[in-house]
Amino acid sequence: THTHTHAKAQIGLRQSTSLTAMAAAAAASPLSLLRSCRALRACPFVAHVALRRPGRHFGAPITLLPSHTRPLRQITSAVDEEAAARAAAASAESGGPTIFDKIISKEIPSTVVYEDDKVLAFRDISPQAPVHVVVIPKVRDGLTQLGKAELRHEVILGHLLYAAKLVAEKEGILEGFRVVINCGASACQSVFHLHLHVLGGRQMKWPPG
Q1: Which of these is catalytic: 132, 193, 195, 197?
Q2: Global confidence as pTM
Q3: What is an example of a GO molecular function annotated in this UniProt entry (predicted)?
């Protein structure tokens, strides 16, 4: 019995040492904490871990993040999206063609939902809702983003919104849909040719991400 008790104590000591090391690593940065919290939650007897050393105290206990916190992969994806948006913003200064120009010229295929002489609407290749359609002006005319709009763009801006309504009507979501315009790298605009996202087919949440 004494041997069995001693063995259990040794196992518990190793677990405690491992958890303390994990917590110390996690304290280095918020991202490290996110990486460690899943492993910490796997141990049923851990509610929080305090970093202590004889004679010293390293601050308040590290409390585990709630289970509804965004998974690390989502945070990593968001960081990647922001980096891609900033790279696209840098290249937009050259005024060169974008992927949308190739879609307009049919060089790149797309699933067209609506088209007239001024705008083109096509399905997003990475839909964020059952209905996700991108609406773009066929002529960019310096309108790389909404923040660059000038008085001469007034007509096309109104027509883009009207086209968004026509798309919603064609897709059967006229009773409830969302129109999104990402403006600039901070809003994760990835193509610097002004465009609207028309989303619907599910209950939208508020506030958006």
Answers
A1: 195
A2: 0.60
A3: adenylylsulfatase activity
